[in-house]
């Protein structure tokens, strides 16, 4: 018999059911490792107003850069040869007088060119050396009315083929052109945009070459006149300045 005065806890606490254990090898249950007071990171939603402000700034910057580039390109296109205006005009009369007096051939020089043709360079070689076999050559560079480059080259150098190769950068002529009743051979070097007119005389080769058109080169070629020793040298067509 039980003692009616004794009290047990069997009827005051419910029985606790055992928790099932995880199978072997099963991964641990996920748990939040974020610091207290901070939510785990995830995708953020941006309001339309914020998105517009962000993208509008980038678009404006890109548009400004594009506008600047277009303006720079326009300036380059408008004035691609502005530097030629700064080339000084030279007086080639001294070189021509020396050539007329001492050259072993009768030189040629331009006469009657309009003032829009400007002489910008002149070089004379072969008269000051000790070797009498050195070729005598004269270079006269000019700016044409269309702001292109043209040059008169003349020399008694042999062989003529090698001299022409250096002056025209071409081996073979591409045609002929009649200039003031004389036949000139045409040469053309495409990658250098170089055109040339060539006339071969006894003991002298004349080359008119440059980036100018064949029409402008023909104007220079037609102006060339022989300068014998017993005549005065012509005045340069352009107003001379100091230099050579």
TrEMBL record:
InterPro entries: DUF4245. This is DUF4245 domain-containing protein. Residues 231-244 have a biased composition (Low complexity). Residues 8-19 have a biased composition (Polar residues). Coiled coil: none annotated. Residues 29-42 have a biased composition (Basic and acidic residues). The chain crosses the membrane at residues 58-78. Residues 1-44, 224-244 are annotated as: Disordered. Signal peptide: none annotated. Pfam families: DUF4245. It comes from the Bacteria. Keywords: Membrane, Transmembrane, Transmembrane helix.
